[in-house]
From TrEMBL:
SUPFAM superfamilies: Family A G protein-coupled receptor-like. It holds the Pfam family 7tm_1. Keywords: Membrane, Transmembrane, Transmembrane helix. It comes from Macrostomum lignano. One of its GO terms (cellular component) is membrane. This is G-protein coupled receptors family 1 profile domain-containing protein.
Length: 348
């Protein structure tokens, strides 16, 4: 993003080049950042883009800050209720892992937003904080989305073999789930490690105000950003979750009646796809340069703001689904909040 900070400390960006123009040459998108000026720095040249940025960005900042706080509260209730009831199967651990990663992701986003809104980090300092925030932001989102994929895959197996009768050492066993999540986390942490190389301390007013940190915009980073969006963080896990969830729904509709836990987990997986798919689609299209054509940049900008706001609403989906459709979760949460003794029961 290129622009300045206005008197309120809120970014007044004139055009965005952080994601657009990253596409490979066979898509007709240029890797030269200088060539990507679909919305020029002069507001008069692109008044629609300028006013969209000016009017929506402060609201986006406030939404991100509120999301960070509300996500921590909602996911903390989920973790406490699951732990109070007791983790016996891997699906319970997946719920805890999703809640923790979603909370950390929203917290990193809120911290980045707050630092940008307050003027950013001091120049030529804060490299460690920059690396930690951006690395944690993308890593936690990757962990959350791939955990949902793992849960959806187990749901498909659960329709043939219910959770309540796991084989020792199988995927439905808690120990097997912990081992699988550990291996998944290590792989994602290694895949996201280039963020530690490409992100550094701000070296100018634009870096400090607009992106908080300096990002080495070499060709290697541009291709890594596409890989990160398409395969690591958004598009691939969301698409796999959609396919697995659709298969589970078909099996559930054709099969015999299942317990509450299976139905609730299927709803949680579907809700994750519903809230993440639009943002993943728009982000991928922007990175591939599909909105760089004349007349399409403003459309991409509006879609970005709309889908990012929609994805923020997903912080409530798991807690709402569990409270509405899972009686055992409601009892566990009520007993936790009223300081009743812990009771362990079979999930139904």
């Amino acid at each position: 993003m290129v622009g300045t900070v206005d008197e309120d400390g809120i970014l007044n960006a004139y055009f965005i080049d952080f994601y657009s123009g990253f596409g490979p040459h066979w898509l007709g998108a240029s890797l030269s950042l200088a060539a990507n000026q679909s919305c020029p720095a002069d507001p008069a040249a692109c008044p629609l883009c300028y006013h969209t940025q000016k009017s929506w960005r402060p609201h986006q900042f406030r939404l991100y800050l509120a999301t960070g706080v509300l996500s921590c509260i909602a996911n903390l209730l989920v973790v406490m209720a699951v732990l109070h009831r007791g983790m016996r199967y891997s699906c319970h651990w997946y719920l805890v892992a999703m809640a923790i990663s979603d909370s950390l992701h929203a917290s990193c986003l809120a911290a980045i937003t707050q630092l940008i809104g307050s003027g950013g980090l001091p120049l030529d300092s804060g490299a460690a904080l920059c690396k930690a925030l951006y690395y944690g932001y993308f890593l936690c989102k990757s962990v959350s989305n791939w955990t949902v994929v793992t849960l959806s895959a187990e749901l498909c197996a659960a329709l043939c073999r219910p959770f309540r009768r796991p084989r020792r050492g199988g995927l439905s066993d808690l120990r097997g789930g912990l081992l699988l999540s550990g291996a998944e986390f290590c792989a994602l942490a290694a895949a996201a490690s280039p963020r530690l190389v490409f992100v550094g301390a701000p070296n100018g007013e634009t870096d400090r105000a607009n992106m908080l940190c300096a990002i080495e915009r070499r060709q290697e980073f541009l291709y890594y950003a596409i890989f990160e969006t398409l395969a690591l963080t958004y598009v691939l896990p969301v698409a796999l979750n959609l396919l697995l969830s659709a298969y589970s729904v078909c099996r559930l509709l054709r099969g015999r009646r299942r317990g509450q836990l299976t139905r609730v987990l299927m709803l949680a997986a579907l809700a994750s796809t519903m809230f993440n798919a639009p943002y993943a689609t728009v982000l991928a299209a922007t990175q591939l340069g599909l909105f760089d054509a004349d007349g399409l940049f403003h459309l991409g900008l509006c879609l970005y703001y709309a889908t990012s706001a929609w994805s923020c609403l997903g912080v409530f989906c798991n807690l709402t689904i569990f409270l509405t459709f899972y009686a055992a979760f409601r009892r566990s949460l009520v007993s936790l909040l009223t300081c009743q003794p812990r009771r362990r029961a079979e999930p139904r």
